[in-house]
């Protein structure tokens, strides 16, 4: 574990992630007891977190996914987000928890909160594995977070570098230059 040469340091081990997800799952279960919650995963980064969280939640859980595309600043449209793949089911009247792997600038989360709020859920909240709040540009309310992280590039447990390394069981800081 963590022996790859490009890994600068392991931020959170598999054991630490597992323990923290159980803690957060207990909070989520208490919040949504007894009726349950609809988890909405934002593809692709959130799938590892969503499945781990869902298995540790003790109230009824429904799952749906959406995917978005965002336009980077250098392409001239900072913070612009649109839905590429929408949810399969209606969320009207549901208690909805949006599941993210990471919240950075907050643009994605703000857009999704506004979009989903327009569909008439009973409640809508955010749960993120990682919060890199030092990069925040727009304020977003985050009800559940597992870890706050420093302003470094991280991979693992869903987070990628050029679509690779999502399946690492731990979360690590990498030096992008050494990844090639
Ligand atoms: C990441 C993450 C969030 C978004 C957060 O997705 O999953 O959706 O960026 O960034 P923001 O707070 O600055 O808007 P990414 O575009 O890396 O896609 P992926 O999940 O498929 O890796």
Note down, in words, how this protein is organized.
The mean pLDDT is 93. With 180 residues, the chain is an alpha/beta fold. The chain has helices at 14-31, 47-56, 107-117, 176-179; strands at residues 7-12, 37-43, 61-71, 80-85, 95-103, 123-131, 144-148, 154-155, 171-174. Helix content is 24%, strand content 33%. The longest helix has 18 residues, at 14-31. It is built from 4 helices and 9 strands; from the N terminus they run βαβαβββαββββα. It binds 1-O-pyrophosphono-5-O-phosphono-alpha-D-ribofuranose. Residues 42-45, 70, 100-109, 160 line the site of 1-O-pyrophosphono-5-O-phosphono-alpha-D-ribofuranose.
How far the N terminus sits from the C terminus, by CA atoms, comes to 21 Å
Question: Can you list the strand order of the major beta sheet?
Answer: 4-3-2-5-6-7
Low-confidence stretches at least 5 residues in length (pLDDT < 50)?
none
Helix content: 10-25%
* Mean residue pLDDT: 93
């Amino acid at each position: 574990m963590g022996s790859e040469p490009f890994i600068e340091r392991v931020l959170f081990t598999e054991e630490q992630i597992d323990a923290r997800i159980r803690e957060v799952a207990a909070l989520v279960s208490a919040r949504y007891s007894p009726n349950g919650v609809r988890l909405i995963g934002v593809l692709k980064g959130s799938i590892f977190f969503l499945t781990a969280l869902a298995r540790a939640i003790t109230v009824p859980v429904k799952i749906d996914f959406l995917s978005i595309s965002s336009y980077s600043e250098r392409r001239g449209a900072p913070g612009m987000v649109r839905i590429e793949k929408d949810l399969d089911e209606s969320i009207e009247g549901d208690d909805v928890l949006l599941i993210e792997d990471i919240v950075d600038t907050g643009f994605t989360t703000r857009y999704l909160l506004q979009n989903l709020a327009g569909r008439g859920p009973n409640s809508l909240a955010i749960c993120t594995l990682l919060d890199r709040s030092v990069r925040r540009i727009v304020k977003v309310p985050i009800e559940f977070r597992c870890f706050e992280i420093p302003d470094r590039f991280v991979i693992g447990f869903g987070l990628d570098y050029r679509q690779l390394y999502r399946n690492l069981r731990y979360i690590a800081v990498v030096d992008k230059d050494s990844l090639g």
